[in-house]
Amino acid sequence: MADLIKKAFYTSVGITALVTEKVQDLVDDLVKQRKISLDEGKKIVDEFWQDTETRKEEVEDRLSKTVENVVSRFDFLTGKDVEDLRERVEELEAKVKAATAKKRTARKSTKATSAAKAK
User: Fold this and answer.
1) Is the alpha carbon torsion for 97, 101, 102, 106 positive or negative?
2) Is the same domain home to 87 and 114?
3) Same structural domain, 14 and 41
4) Nearest-angstrom CA–CA distance, 113 and 108
5) pLDDT tens, position by position, 26-41
C-alpha cells in the first residue's frame, strides 16, 4: 500500500515537472514570436509555478491525512511492541530449553537407576 502511494506521488511529481517544462517552453516560444513580452512570460511562469506549489502542498496534506487514516485502521505493531514480543520469545525459549534439559537429566537418572537395579 505504501509503495503504491509513493509511486502515485512520484508520478504526480514527474508529471508536474514535465508540465512545468512544457509551459516554460511555450512561454519561451511566445516571447520569441513577440506575442508576449518577456515580463509577461515571466509572470505567466511564476503564476503557474506558484499555483503548482500550492496544489502540491494541498496534495501532500491530503495524502498525509489519507495515509494516517489508513494506518489508524490497522493494528500495526510499534517498535516497542516488537521488542516486547522478542523478549517474551527469548524468555519462553529459555524455559523450553531448561525444561528439556531437566527431562534429559531425569531420563539419564532413571536409566542409571534401572541399570543399577538390573545388576
Assistant:
1) positive
2) yes
3) yes
4) 9
5) 999 999 998 999 899 8
